[in-house]
Transcriptional repressor
Amino acid sequence: MENRIEKIKKQLSSQSYKLTPQREATVRVLLEHEEDHLSAEDVYLLVKEKAPEIGLATVYRTLELLSELKVVDKINFGDGVSRYDLRKEGAEHFHHHLVCVECGSVKEIEEDLLGDVEAIVQSRWSFEVKDHRLTFHGVCEQCQTITSKVNS
Ligand SMILES: [Zn+2]
Ligand SMILES: [Zn+2]
Ligand SMILES: [Zn+2]
């Protein structure tokens, strides 16, 4: 974790931003909940446990800054809530998501499956792909098992 914090600190300072204690508290919460796809409110409530003086506006501005600097990616799973997701180390593009419509679980696919699609988009539409969002909505393995048990 300290390692990742150091790297994020460098990423910020290369853009002339400081990792202030409040920003650091926000980054720590994101690291501790890396799998969780937290909303700004979720992050705020967790940061508040570490830094009670912090306000929602500060957390919100920090999250916006981190997404501008590509430390986090912002995603919406169709429920109108923006969620914040730490960018995986070394990843050029945003990872993909599998969202279960039954239980709401979110699984990540870290491998970029869109290489061929990006090549088509670039050549056919002369569009330079910088990033993408790919979310599959469906039924997870666990919920499929439950459904087949009920039906048999
Ligand atoms: Zn890609
Ligand atoms: Zn499920
Ligand atoms: Zn994710």
Notes: The helical segments are 2-13, 21-32, 40-50, 56-68, 115-125, 141-151. Residues 37, 85, 95, 97, 108 surround zinc ion (ligand 3) (CB under 6 Å). The first strand starts at residue 38 and ends at 39.
